[in-house]
Design a protein that fits this description.
By secondary structure, the chain is mainly beta. Helix content is 0%, strand content 50%. The protein is built from no helices and 9 strands. β1 and β2 form a beta hairpin. The chain is globular. The N and C termini lie far apart (33 Å).
Length: 100
């Protein structure tokens, strides 16, 4: 569904859940709303994400992994919701958030 400059991806019962990949970050949830102009995403419903190791991420400029994490391993996270801004490369997880 495309509406108000947003793309809304919704899974259906018995089918795969929506999944979006942005420069080495894969996000999966029951519903994902992508801001087409603002380059933002909001995922809800048992959100899971995987960020690939910095060295394997394509993109503009040098790849970095937050210092708290091992730059040579994938980073996994889960939560009830995720707000992600791809221009700022910033994600905010909420509700039973886990990082490993």
């Amino acid at each position: 569904l495309v509406s108000d400059d947003r793309l809304v991806l919704v899974g259906r019962d018995g089918t795969a859940r929506p999944r979006v990949t942005d420069t080495g970050l894969q996000i999966e949830g029951d519903e994902i709303t992508v801001g087409l102009t603002a380059n933002t995403m909001r995922a809800t419903g048992e959100v899971a994400s995987v960020m690939q190791p910095a060295a394997s991420r394509p993109g503009t400029g040098p790849a970095k992994t937050p210092a708290l994490l091992d730059g040579g391993q994938a980073v996994f996270a889960s939560a009830a919701a995720l707000d992600y801004d791809s221009q700022q490369r910033r994600g905010t997880y909420a509700g039973r958030a886990r990082l490993w």
